[in-house]
């Protein structure tokens, strides 16, 4: 769960954006948009939520690491609850389970990257100058290829942007800049152009995962993302120091096992330091700064560097099996029941790890994310307590391995049990509010889709407002389970706890979150605390249920708003489906 970090930063920056005016706040429900009956909403109580958190975060569940005894207990508990509530098995094989094959990949740290420019040969050192791995399930990988600088490596139809311009980069090693192209406002060159790549906010084109994916699509032999970071100012396009980029590659990494053993993924994924990039470019007769200037222009074309790179990497592969838990409520309208609204909450945690000062080594993950799972079960129970199911079907998916890289949700989104073109929306729960009622609800990626409008209306009926993520440049929308649905085109919502607590002074909510982040986040002490007050969580869950209920009863499909980077994918999917 990374939402806590976002909120912490919102705290620090004191950047709050209340998007609903007081006038709108008291608006009556829109006609035809009736929420679930009160009797159903009232099924969700603080006690019922707490009872699930207690069980899932108990020491007996061993911190819920994938492929452990803790997994067995967790998935069986959730499946038993689904059954008890009366959910149907969500998988078409008649079970509540979807198997998720996972690979653990450990790359050997002694590889050398040899770059030859004319008669000059440079030897780059693993960890100091570059890091690289392959997510293909092979024990040896690498390349022996020419290097091409492709600018930001972006193909973004909604901005009329294509860094490749039809140049064939198959079999090449691509050098790519990190982040979105920082296009300047033509009228105010000191500022970013808000019409391009959402201005200061990060779009998916800026994430390193995108860079690797587009390289695979283009058939490249490898990608080295240029790590631009200024240690003096502690800032830069990479968003974190070299040690962090390096750190991601020097541990066991986890990934899905696709049917093709990940052979369609790019052969080598890596990072290279900026000083080494400058050296290579200079030796090849180019200036890094000059090429960077060209790369922020729409008319940029790939530049063959006249440099040749050779790399061999070795790695160990471990195959493990994990599980998503899936329960279903069939819709009541024969014409719409083959369409789905999906709720997700990851069940996995950090398991048993290094002991803390008190000698506790069980990472109970009470807030992250026993609480989200409790929410998932309780929202399901409230749906079942409605006199009649909504017109569309509802799927409740508790996904695995979020903490290992959003793996369970990725598996579902890439291997959906029900077609994605009939999956109308996804709502994610990762960490519930544990400090009481709030006047606001935080939405990471606010403004992306029409789901926000449904949420805003329902929140207004609770006399609450929506609050945007204060640091959109950090790309938090791309860092939790809802994102894997978004990426495949499904409108996805990531709502979370507010920070403006009723009856508490300004800044109190921020302080509490700050405390959680420093003391308990991803630590053995993420446990139920005596001061927990789940009244706010209950209100949030009733709100999330209302949103799903209305979407499931509406005649319309929710949609991405213009400018959202997943819109083209959805439009294409719906066009193919003939809608
Ligand atoms: Zn989480």
Structure write-up:
It is built from 16 helices and 20 strands. The protein is an alpha/beta fold and 579 residues long. It folds into two domains: 3-103 and 319-576, Aminopeptidase; 105-318, 3-Layer(bba) Sandwich (Glucose Oxidase, domain 1). The strands form three sheets. The chain has a 15-stranded mixed β-sheet that branches. A three-stranded mixed β-sheet has the order 18-17-20, covered by helices on one side. Strand 14 (340-346), helix 10 (366-384) and strand 15 form a beta-alpha-beta unit. The protein is globular. It starts with a helix and ends with a helix. Mean pLDDT is 91; it is low at 2-32. Bound molecules: zinc ion (ZN). Zinc ion (ZN) binds at residues 1, 346, 368-369, 402, 430-431.
Can you give keywords for this protein?
single chain; 579 residues; alpha/beta; Aminopeptidase; Glucose Oxidase, domain 1; 2 domains; 15-stranded mixed beta sheet; three-stranded mixed beta sheet; 16 helices; 20 strands; 21% strand; globular; disordered N terminus; binds zinc ion
């Amino acid at each position: 769960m990374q939402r806590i970090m976002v909120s912490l930063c919102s705290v620090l920056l004191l950047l709050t954006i209340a998007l609903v005016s007081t006038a709108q706040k008291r608006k009556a429900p829109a006609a035809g948009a009736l929420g679930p009956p009160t009797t159903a909403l009232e099924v969700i109580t603080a006690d019922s939520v707490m009872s699930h958190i207690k069980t899932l975060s108990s020491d007996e569940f061993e911190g819920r690491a994938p492929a452990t005894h803790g997994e067995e207990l967790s998935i069986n508990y959730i499946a038993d609850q689904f059954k008890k509530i009366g959910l149907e098995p969500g998988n078409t094989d008649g079970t509540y389970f979807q198997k998720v094959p996972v690979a653990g990949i450990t790359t050997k740290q002694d590889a050398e990257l040899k770059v030859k420019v004319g008669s000059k040969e440079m030897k780059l050192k693993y960890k100091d100058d570059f890091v690289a791995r392959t997510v293909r399930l092979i024990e040896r990988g690498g390349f022996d290829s020419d290097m091409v600088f492709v600018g930001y490596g972006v193909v973004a139809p909604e901005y009329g942007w294509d860094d490749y311009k039809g140049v064939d980069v198959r079999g090449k090693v691509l050098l790519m800049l990190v982040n979105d192209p920082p296009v300047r406002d033509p009228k105010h060159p000191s500022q970013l152009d808000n019409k391009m790549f959402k201005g200061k906010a990060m779009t998916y084109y800026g994430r390193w995962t995108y860079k690797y994916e587009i390289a695979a699509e283009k058939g490249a032999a490898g990608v080295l993302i240029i790590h631009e970071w200024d240690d003096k100012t502690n800032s830069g396009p990479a968003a974190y120091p070299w040690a962090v980029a390096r750190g991601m590659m020097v541990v066991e990494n986890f990934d899905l096992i696709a049917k093709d053993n990940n052979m369609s993924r790019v052969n080598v994924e890596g990072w290279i330091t900026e000083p080494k990039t400058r050296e290579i470019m200079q030796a090849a007769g180019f200036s890094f700064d000059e090429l960077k200037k060209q790369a922020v222009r729409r008319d940029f074309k790939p530049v063959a560097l006249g440099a040749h790179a050779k790399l061999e990497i070795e790695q160990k592969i471990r195959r493990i099996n994990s599980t998503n838990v899936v329960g279903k409520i069939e819709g009541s309208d024969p014409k719409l029941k083959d369409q789905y609204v999906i709720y997700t909450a990851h069940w996995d945690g950090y398991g048993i790890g290094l002991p803390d000062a008190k000698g506790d080594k069980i990472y109970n993950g009470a807030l992250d994310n026993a609480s989200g799972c409790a929410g998932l079960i309780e929202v399901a129970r409230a749906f079942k307590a409605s006199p009649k199911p909504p017109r569309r079907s509802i799927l409740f998916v508790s996904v695995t391995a979020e903490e290992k890289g959003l793996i369970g949700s990725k598996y579902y989104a890439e291997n959906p049990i029900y077609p994605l073109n009939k999956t109308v929306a996804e709502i994610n729960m990762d960490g519930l509010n544990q400090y009481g009622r709030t006047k606001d609800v935080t939405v990471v990626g606010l403004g992306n889709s029409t789901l926000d409008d449904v949420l805003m209306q329902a929140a207004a009926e609770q006399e609450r407002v929506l609050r945007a993520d204060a640091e959109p440049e950090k790309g938090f929308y791309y860092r939790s389970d809802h994102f894997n649905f978004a990426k495949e085109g499904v409108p996805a919502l990531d709502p979370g706890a507010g920070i403006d607590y009723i009856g508490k002074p300004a800044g109190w909510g921020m302080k509490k979150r700050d405390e959680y982040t420093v003391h308990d986040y991803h630590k053995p002490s993420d446990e139920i605390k005596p001061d927990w007050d789940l009244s706010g969580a209950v209100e949030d869950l009733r709100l999330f249920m209302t949103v799903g209920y209305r979407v499931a009863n509406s005649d319309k499909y929710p949609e991405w708003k213009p400018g959202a980077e997943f819109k083209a994918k959805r439009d294409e999917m719906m066009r193919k489906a003939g809608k």
